[in-house]
């Protein structure tokens, strides 16, 4: 059943603590997951994390990638200001004290200075290494054996040694090549298992490349278009995330979310499902009126005003951290996102983006 009285109360405006799930020693066959809902509801926190009052003069904190390990949230995000982008790492255990977490600016690591943005973090089990995938004008990555030691992130390497692939150059128009995302299937044979690299162009196109798990991160193929919208580029904008739906088979095995624009210029997420990473994508909750996450299906915690109208670039909080990007959609989700005061008018890179958390409501 997809029922939670406590979360339903949150949707109505009452902040209620969730009871602990009872433990059992009984061994039973794992049930099949419930079908994915045709609509979602969320409760949002207020802003949890913003720029520090330090000599960095950061305007906004954006593009979070987050894994939760033994109760600790490990967060990687973009640091934005008019002069450019880099990235930051921080961690916390208490959600409502996240804003006091110390920042480690990743330009202090061998990952280095210069344009780096829109991170995705995961543990690549075959190499026993954490990977940080990001954009630096190419699709880049760094590695680290210890997620909790940000000083060890390596200098950037790229997935496409020859630069922007031709299909992207031919179709990008006046857009930007952004938001790289890696997801691998779960085939046992590393020569048959494929790792896929997705990216967007801010021009209505979602691209996909692939290589074998045995060759990863080398050997990415020339991209193909995984999804496109030739009528409205703002309906298929950026920030694509692809997750394996734990335990699911058939058409709900994988879930794709992509950021889009509302008719009045705010951000929200659409969603699709597929039986395979390289398959056809079927709409799930994919409209402004019925989004995966957006203004129409997000309310705010008791005592928190509607501080943002955009549910922008974010990621489902993952407790399974490997390259398959597995998420248990049968349990209420957490989704960390960037929001911004809609009344602020300034250059995009100088917008005061803040990070917040959505908690899914089950009915």
Ranges where pLDDT stays below 50 over 5 or more residues in a row are 1-29
- Order of H and E elements: HEEEEEEEEEHEEEEEEEEEEEEE
Radius of gyration, in Å, reads: 19 Å
Fraction in helix: under 10%
How many separate helices? 2
Biggest sheet: strands, sense, closure? 5 strands, mixed
Query: Strand portion, in percent?
Result: 35-45%
Shape summary:
globular
The secondary-structure class comes to: mainly beta
Average of pLDDT: 92
Sequence of strands across the biggest β-sheet: 18-1-22-21-19
Give the strand tally. Answer: 22
Task: Quote the distance from N terminus to C terminus.
Answer: 9 Å
Write up this protein.
By secondary structure, the chain is mainly β. The longest helix has 8 residues, at 5-12. The strands form five sheets. The chain has a five-stranded mixed sheet, covered by helices on one side. It has a five-stranded mixed sheet with strand order 17-16-15-14-20, with no helix packed on it. It has helices at 5-12, 166-171; strands at 42-44, 60-69, 72-81, 84-92, 104-105, 117-124, 129-135, 139-144, 157-158, 178-184, 194-200, 205-212, 224-228, 238-245, 254-261, 267-274, 282-283, 298-300, 312-316, 326-327, 334-339, 354-360. It has two helices and 22 strands.
């Amino acid at each position: 059943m997809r029922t939670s009285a406590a979360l339903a109360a949150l949707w109505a405006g009452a902040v209620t603590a969730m009871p602990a799930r009872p433990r059992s020693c009984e061994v039973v066959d794992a049930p099949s997951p419930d079908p994915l809902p045709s609509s979602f509801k969320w409760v949002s926190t207020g802003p949890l994390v913003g720029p520090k009052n330090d000599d960095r003069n950061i305007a906004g904190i954006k593009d979070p990638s987050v894994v939760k390990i033994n109760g600790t949230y490990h967060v990687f995000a973009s640091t934005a200001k008019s002069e450019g982008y880099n990235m930051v790492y921080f961690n916390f255990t208490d959600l409502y004290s996240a804003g006091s977490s110390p920042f480690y600016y990743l330009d202090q690591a061998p990952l280095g200075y210069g344009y780096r943005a829109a991170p995705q973090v995961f543990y690549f089990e075959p190499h026993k290494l954490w990977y940080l995938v990001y954009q630096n004008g190419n699709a880049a990555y760094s590695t680290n054996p210890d997620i909790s030691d940000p000083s060890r992130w390596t200098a950037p390497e790229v997935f496409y040694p020859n630069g922007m692939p031709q299909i992207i150059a031919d179709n990008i128009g006046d857009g930007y090549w952004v938001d790289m995302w890696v997801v691998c299937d779960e085939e046992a044979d590393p020569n048959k298992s494929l790792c896929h690299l997705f990216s967007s162009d801010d021009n209505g196109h979602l691209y996909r490349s692939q290589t074998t798990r045995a060759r990863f991160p080398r050997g990415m193929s020339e991209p193909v278009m995984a999804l496109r919208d030739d009528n409205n580029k703002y309906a298929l904008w950026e920030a694509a995330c692809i997750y394996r739906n734990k335990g699911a088979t058939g058409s709900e095995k994988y879930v794709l979310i992509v950021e889009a624009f509302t008719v009045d210029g705010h951000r929200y997420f659409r969603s699709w499902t597929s039986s395979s990473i390289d398959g056809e994508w079927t709409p799930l909750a994919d409209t402004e009126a019925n989004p995966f996450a957006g203004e129409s299906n997000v309310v705010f915690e008791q005592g928190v005003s509607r501080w943002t109208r955009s549910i922008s670039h974010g990621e489902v909080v993952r407790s399974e951290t490997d390259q398959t990007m597995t998420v248990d959609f049968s349990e209420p989700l957490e989704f960390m996102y960037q929001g911004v005061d809609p009344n602020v008018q300034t250059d995009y890179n100088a917008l005061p983006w803040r990070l917040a958390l959505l908690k899914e409501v089950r009915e």
